[in-house]
What does this fold into?
Amino acid sequence: MTMAETTLKRHPIRGFIWGLITGAGVGLLLMVLSVVPLSIPTLIVATAAAAVIGMLWGLFAPPKKPKGSAPGGSPPAAPEPA
Amino acid sequence: MRRSRNLLLALGVVMLVAVPQAFAQDAEEPVVDLMEFIPEQFRADFSDINGDGIPDIGELPPEGVAGIWDDKVGEVTEDGFLAAVTGNFDQSDTGSSLTGPCKGVVITYDADGLSVDAMFDRGGDEPLYDIYGHQKMTRDNPLLVDTGGTLVYYGSSIPATFHDHRWFLKAEGVFKDDGGDPNPRDKNRNAGAVDFGDLLPFEFTALLKAKGAWVDGWGATELPEMATYPEPNCVGEGWVKFVGPNPLLTPPGILAMLLAAAGFTGVLFNARPALSWREG
It folds into this structure.
């Protein structure tokens, strides 16, 4: 019988790309709503900052639990008699 | 009981916010009659229909006369456009200024010809003012421009008359225009209209910084941005707020919401580190 272990897979590239898209969207939204002035340099900075935050999220966020049950683990308990 | 109490609380908050503003608006009376800035031959085209103290328009004045050095083509590439609409805009400066002999009035209208906002300048180093006597084009009191409407202006450089003059006007991220004229007929005043509804591909909302300059005796070469210009000249800088329909229903608003929603969903569900089972 083998013991089930878990491996951790991180996604810094995905985090960077999704962060980039989030940053562009949120930055543009704030400008459209006139919360911040329209400024291309500001939009670039916001997008870059969100991309870095996304990358850090992809590296260090709390990991998702593994799907399904552990391979080779104990079988599910039988239902108790009524 | 609890619901009624919450309802009363919400009503109280709304009253606290709305009532003082309504009183403040009622209390303000225009201190300037903008008709004094409009040439006599055009005055019959204006009357204050919506009662805001700003003359509303019946018929657009004729378009301003273009100078022979005016840029009639604009930028034809994306890179050229981006280079033209970016520059040294000081976002930390929340004020406004207009120096030099230039004077006149600017009135903005919605698509129905009803006034949205206005400002004037009497020349000299004083800033622009609104009809209530407050400094205009500051970040807190920007010039409101309807992206589906029209802007009308009457301006002059009296007592100066500019020759071989050059000008530029740019708003960060949105537009830049420039031009000039030898002015052989010694003109020192102009009137015109800008129809944003015609010029812009779609309506949008944004707060942005704008600046411009008009310089006497510069010649045919393009005016550099914010250099030390020879006298006399007019140099101005301030804030403009483009207004229109609900910002979230404009093309940039829809694009922004889609990007933000897609990106946030991706960050939450596609970029998070994940554990998986492995045979050990």
Q: What stands out?
A: Residues 2-27 of chain B form the longest helix (26 residues). The mean pLDDT of chain B is 84.
